[in-house]
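A.,

Following up on our hallway conversation. Structure tokens first:
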């Protein structure tokens, strides 16, 4: 069992080079897309070895797929016949489980999906998914906490989302890939992960245009075939390591990425006065003892500032000079980490969905608890910059999104270790904190 607690001895500038992992949020929909195949194989490269990946693999195996996964290479063999009922114990572990709904309805004509779980960052209903599937001819019922979907045959349709939901866009892209005719998805999400999924579906034989824009056209085919595809680099992981260099006043370079995918972050870092070196496949950020200035940020759908980077940039801004303002416009309840930040000496005032941050010269180590995946990463960043020792608990969230985090942080000079799962109370005191 992986430890759920990390001891960080902070105050050391991090420096060096790390390579970005494959994007979890691109790999999960690509894996779900394999369900569109019938007696065929999908091979994916650069798949990160993460808890969520194994959860999705377990879900696909339950439905009948055979999966081999080693060294970042995953092969998924899909049988002629699939199960269409999904197990609640797996589905409720992560929100991305909802991505199998559309493929199952398209492939099997029906599906049962318990309402999915995941990080506690506010209400994230799947209404957009269900309304769009209804537009394509699916009958949807909610019974005893589960979605029951069935159809006598799907039809191409024009889908217009009220909000550019990433998950709903992905679900309808996959459904439309197996539905004859042309489906138009308007106000579609534009994230790089959407483009990666379109590449996977094109490799299978679907015709897709407009991915990366607000309107996506999908011309489906009932005869999708074997395919190979590569997962894009993880822009959120890469951004987190860049901020590790900034917050510790060091110099970190992240390689193997598309700098365009993190342009919203690098623009804000430049505005804050952080020197950057942006190459064709790498970005480095260096403060090396210098300070940075507060900025104003509003989270938005891509290409705006990503909500998944809000806790991490907040951690860095807590040590900036002056006042910063963050407006969270994507998810409610995504300020649950603020109480833990305050325990370390951060000065943050919450006014609705707006956080006003007064920069402080230093933060102090404390025992803190991660409320979700990105909040956990942000607390690690604060711990790396803090004076003294920090223990970050509830790391189960962090392991969902960061591959080889311990090795990568240590390669940059971080003084961190995992504490025993059943460690005694007061471990922080025993460790010298």
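Then the amino acids I'd put at each of the 433 positions:
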């Amino acid at each position: 069992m992986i430890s759920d607690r990390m001891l960080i001895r902070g105050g050391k500038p991090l420096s060096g080079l790390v390579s970005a992992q494959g994007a979890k949020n691109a790999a999960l929909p690509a894996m779900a897309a394999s369900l569109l195949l019938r007696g065929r194989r999908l091979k994916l490269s650069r798949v990160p070895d993460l808890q969520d990946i194994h959860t999705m693999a377990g879900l696909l195996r339950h439905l009948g797929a055979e999966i081999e996964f080693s060294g970042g290479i995953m092969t998924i063999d899909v049988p002629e016949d699939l199960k269409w009922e999904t197990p609640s114990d797996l589905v409720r572990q992560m929100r991305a489980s909802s991505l199998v709904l559309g493929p199952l309805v398209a492939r099997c004509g029906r599906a049962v999906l318990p309402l999915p779980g995941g990080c506690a960052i506010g209400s994230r209903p799947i209404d957009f998914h269900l309304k769009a599937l209804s537009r394509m001819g699916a009958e949807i019922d909610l019974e005893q906490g589960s979605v029951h979907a069935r159809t006598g045959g799907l039809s191409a349709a024009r889908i217009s989302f009220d909000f550019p939901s990433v998950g709903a866009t992905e679900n309808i892209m996959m459904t439309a890939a197996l539905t004859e005719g042309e489906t138009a998805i308007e106000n579609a999400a534009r994230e790089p992960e959407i483009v990666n999924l379109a590449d996977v579906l094109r490799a299978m034989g679907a015709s897709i245009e407009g991915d990366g824009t607000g309107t996506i056209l999908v011309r489906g085919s009932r005869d999708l075939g074997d395919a190979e595809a590569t997962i894009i680099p993880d822009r959120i992981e890469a951004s987190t390591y860049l901020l590790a260099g900034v917050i510790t006043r060091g110099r970190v370079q992240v390689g193997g990425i598309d700098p365009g995918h993190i342009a919203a972050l690098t623009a804000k870092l430049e505005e804050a006065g952080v020197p950057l070196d942006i190459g064709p496949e790498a970005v480095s950020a260096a403060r090396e003892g210098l300070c940075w200035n507060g900025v104003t940020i509003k989270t938005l759908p891509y290409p705006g500032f990503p909500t998944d980077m809000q806790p991490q940039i907040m951690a860095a801004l807590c040590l900036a000079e002056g006042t910063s303002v963050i407006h969270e416009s994507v998810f409610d309840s995504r300020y649950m980490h603020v109480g833990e930040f305050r325990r370390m000496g951060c000065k943050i005032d919450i006014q609705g969905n707006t956080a006003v941050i007064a920069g402080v010269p230093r933060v102090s180590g404390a025992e803190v608890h991660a409320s979700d995946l990105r909040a956990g990463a942000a607390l690690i960043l604060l711990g790396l910059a803090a004076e003294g020792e920090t223990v970050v608990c509830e790391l189960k969230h962090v392991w969902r999104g960061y591959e080889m985090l311990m090795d990568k942080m240590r390669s940059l000079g971080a003084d961190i270790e995992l504490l025993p799962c059943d460690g005694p109370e007061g471990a922080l005191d025993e460790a010298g904190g």
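The chain has two domains: 5-21+233-430, 24-230. Curious whether your intuition agrees with the design.

B.
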